[in-house]
Amino acid sequence: MKNNTMTQPVLELLRSHRSIRKFTEQPVEESLLRDLITAGQSAATSSNLQGVSVIRVRNPETRRAMAELAGGQAYVEEAAEFLVFCADLNRSGWCCEQSGKTMADGMTEHFIIATVDVALFAQNVVVAAESEGLGICYIGALRNDPQQVSDLLALPDNVYPVFGLCLGYPDQDPECKPRLPLDAILMEEHYQPVNAERMAEYDETMRTYYQRRTGGKLDRVWSQEMSALLGKESRPHMREFLEKKGFKMR
Hints:
Elements (H helix, E strand, L loop, with lengths): L6 H9 L14 H12 L10 E6 L2 H10 L5 H4 L2 E8 L1 H9 L9 H24 L3 E5 L6 H8 L5 E10 L13 H4 L10 H18 L8 H9 L6 H8 L6
Antiparallel strand pairs: 1-2, 2-4, 3-4
Helix pairs in contact: 2-6
């Protein structure tokens, strides 16, 4: 008989994820932080590349600069910990040099597997952190100016900042944001067309959520958010930046 003793708590934990943007002043114990990063290392990694480096930023001036680069997100400064997760091919390039070989620079596949490694690693860290009562907020806005972030962190070629992560003890208890209906995501045998009725129902769910969250000040739905997001160019500087860093996508 299958033992479900631990299964349900894990599922409940995963379903209860929220982004936290207000933190207490309680520090994260050094031993716990190291345990969280070790949990990240246990994530799946393509071909054992382990193409991740995590930079812990504690210098207040660096934190302040990164908060500004991220569009003035104050919690970058205020969280007990701020980590920058980087896709790292520099280390594997060093291995090539030590073996007397030349790394095949700029391969799109290498870029993909290093970036996926970062996402899997970070999500392990997040789940482990939330299981310990911590809150988190991903900071993708570091890519607003990835060159300045790279300069602040002295990132070499073949390393780029994928996102930041605020980490600390929550000082708020926000509602979980509703996700798309499962039937819109889980498909049988082949890709299914978008169901307009289902999407309209989800839009109304999101409208209710935003109005409740903002006390009626925000009237917005998911389809509008996606139109705004994908209906304009998004960080067009990233391609040139990545090419300069050695990620030529060939």
